[in-house]
Give the backbone structure.
Amino acid sequence: MSSLRADDVDVLVSRHQPEQATLKGYVIGFGSSIILTMTAYLLARYGLLDKPIMVALLATLALAQFAVQLIYFLHVGREFSPRLKLMVMLTMMLIVFILVAGSIWIMNSLNGRMMNTKQMVQYMNNQNNL
Amino acid sequence: MMHVFANFWLGKLNLQALPPNAIQWFGALLMISVPIGLAVFLTVTKRWKWLYKEWLTTQDPKKIGVMYIIVAVAMLLRGAADVALIKTQQSISVGHSMGILSSSHFQQIVTAHGTIMIFFVAMGLMFGLFNLIVPLQIGARDVAFPFLNATSFWLFFSGMVLVNLSLILGDFAATGWLAYPPLSELRYSPTVGVDYWIWSLEIAGVGSLLSGINFLVTILKMRVKGMNLMKMPMFCWSVLGSTLLIAFAFPILTVCLTLLALDRDIGTHFFTAGGGGNMMMYVNLIWAWGHPEVYILVLPAFGVYSEVVATFSRKRLFGYTSMVWAIMAIVLLSFIVWLHHFFTMGAGSDVNAFFGIMTMIIAIPTGVKIFNWLFTMYRGKIRLESPMLWFIGFVVLFTIGGMAGVMMAVPPIDFQLHNSLFLIAHFHMMIVGGVLFADFAAITYWFPKIFGFRLNERLGRIAFWCWLIGFLLSFIPLYILGFMGATRRLDHYAAGLGWQQLFIVSAIGAAVIGIGVGVQILQLVYSYFSRRNNLDLSGDPWDGRSLEWSTPSPVPFYNFAKTPHVTERDAFWVAKRHNLKDTRPYEDIEIPKNTPLAMIIAAGALAFGFAVVWHIWWLAVIGLLTSVVSLIVRSMDEHTERIIKAEEIERLDKLYSGGLSR
């Protein structure tokens, strides 16, 4: 640790965290992330709503969870070199976007080229009759 | 009653878990004999205490780096033993002869070979180099989080132990190194093999992720004053790229393995065809990690070559800025090409075309780097010592292998070559020619810095030629066999196909590589016993350029007696040319105290992994508790560092620079 500069030490060592990172903050973050997870799980488990509304709601809950993690655990917005953090954040968002959008694109393409259940049953019957 | 009792204490573990036949017994006994032999040696020479104090509890990145490399080299030998079995089987299992291995055993060996070589050899050597070189090159005395660093190493070690335990108890995955479902699901792989695979990679993978984050922070935050990013040595840039990839890619692996484990252990259906799961999602996810992983390995290798070429051409690296941009372009592009590993899975031509083109584009920054190295050599004063030989061998192999890769980036061609030995030849050329050759160059190059004496040059050259010739003999036949239709993981084929001669040539090539490995071991032993003749007293045996060469060899535990002063790129080169002397006073230095907690955390993880593999739940709870409690104990400890006084540093520095430490 010895060659760290003074302003870096605050970022790196937790006991020198800035004032705002309090026990209260962590408890609020922990509580709200659990509530958000449980809500999403119960909604999906018991299928309480129509599908389109459900999808929209789950996506919103996921975004809220994302925000909670960033604010209460990663302390975004309170760091010492905001420009670096911003760059890292943008890179992360870009890569997450690439992976999510790419996966959806790939899986949809695969799905579109699969047989539906009726075709598959017919195909299997034909195979068996051979 | 007995049954319930055994079920509770031993889970699925019973006598049937022991090896079923002579060959597997042999492997198991060999595997047991290594730790037993080591233990006997340590007891006889009374070195347990020394081992504990100097190595097992250390937080010094140089020692951790050496331990990484020792583990990786041991695993290289294990992987090479697997190769010997694979090549023997493929040479003789033709027509009526079924060879020496059962089909299932052969598949396990191939899977173990791939898993071990990637995760425990290539990754181990890379992390070893990160630990040894990065702090020295950026003028730091330590990494950003020394305790985390030790924990990462021990988690890597635990993963390694778990893979090798499968030789003794139970079996290993027979699924190929990425264990695609549905084959890797419980229904088709009911034994513990896949579980061993999952948990050893899960544990080692967490270690890799933590280590990646650690070095990312180290490079961003711990550079010495005056060294801005564009003044860093190229090796550090490549490590920065690699660790960025680790930070973004390894979580995908962790999640992917966890989902597969849930499928197998608690009956979810993420990747089964029934119940709304989709096995193609697994392939998609694992390659979203797997492709960046390739660049995680090869970027630091590029960094090593950049250092070696500049030093041995006695010229500054050509095109520094373009190198940096090439690395960053590769970092981004490596996240946009993953589908080229499964062109044949059935996506539409639009999807395949997009990823095919992206794959061709990623060859451009790689080409930029090759030309930069060649231009660095152009009109340089080249010394053809063995690190430089490894580099030249790399350029040849990597270019051939790379062209094969660009070829396979064309989806219609890939449809012909997918899963064939052509692909195997291609990626071995990249990983062996690219990564492993770099590791050998790096070990030769930085060996005197760490141990204080050079490796024998003559034996190094012989090893290089064995490797190069053996490699070409071994893999050119595989390109041809791939064209002829031979598939990967092939344990038996018809005599009429005419493949046997080529397989035998390939086996001879592997034997030549084996001789090369033997020569390297000899080189190590010989150089150690004749070290008085090749001591490095100057600390700068190659006329180096970056900061690590400004320290005495072997590097003292505090790295730099005085924090180095940097104003330009190639700081040490400049200081040497202008004969700059540092007249500042010595200062107190803080270094982390030794602690066994890192090792205990990893031991808990190992117990947990082993317990989950065999469903021994009480042990899983104990293992997990051990890790968590150790972590809490460590977090409460406020006195983790000790101070070395300036006078002591001054005394040691005068001693070391005078060459008296030997």
Observations:
- The radius of gyration of chain B is 25 Å.
- DSSP finds 20 helices and two strands in chain B.
- The beta strands of chain B are 589-592, 641-644.
